[in-house]
Design a protein that fits this description.
By secondary structure, this protein is of the alpha/beta class. It has 7 helices and 10 strands. A hairpin with a 3-residue loop joins strand 1 and strand 2 (15-25). The longest helix is centred in the C-terminal third of the chain and has 15 residues, at 170-184. 36% of the residues are buried.
Amino acid sequence: MLEIKKVTKIYDEKTIALYNLSFSLNKGEFITVLGPTGAGKTTLIKLLALEESPTQGEIKFDSFTTQKMKKSHTSQWRQKLGIVFQDLRLIKDKSVFDNVALPLRIKGVKEKNVKKKTTEILGNLGLLLKRNSLPPELSGGERQKVAFARALVSEPVLFLADEPTANLDPVATEEILDLLTKIHNQGTTVMVTTNQEQVYQKFNQKISPARVLELELGKLK
């Protein structure tokens, strides 16, 4: 379903973010990518989201490949993804409902169905009472859940999570980790994190099949 083939990403012709990285992901798998700050984890998410292009190598996803990418393929690729970025990227002056509904509206889904699906996902994540709130009015854990709801509302083929528990208190962290395990039952997941203890204690016990890949200086150990 997803294949990373000898991917290298170099910035400014001198900074190597990823070097000769290769791995594959099968449908229904959960892969956690571990690594310290600067190991290229966020770069990997950006490559998978087509925000960046490989300097060398190839990424294959579904029926697409970065080596033969047409402009029309970019939107089709992205519409199959659900992404929670580390900075969340919520629109501060739009309500929780409108933030979550955005992917459906971009796809041109009828407003009646937008309302139904958005209300459903907000209910599932315990956010229905916050539907009219703005992101700055929410707690960190609530904002994280809104980002999850937006990523999941269009039922993506592949879910990407970049440091999904960063800067959260222990209670909110546990809620997000539980949410991740539930999400995985519906699809395929790539999560990047620096928290090795969290990964081994939580995901390897509750998710199958699960794999852990460790990045060191931009490449797999």
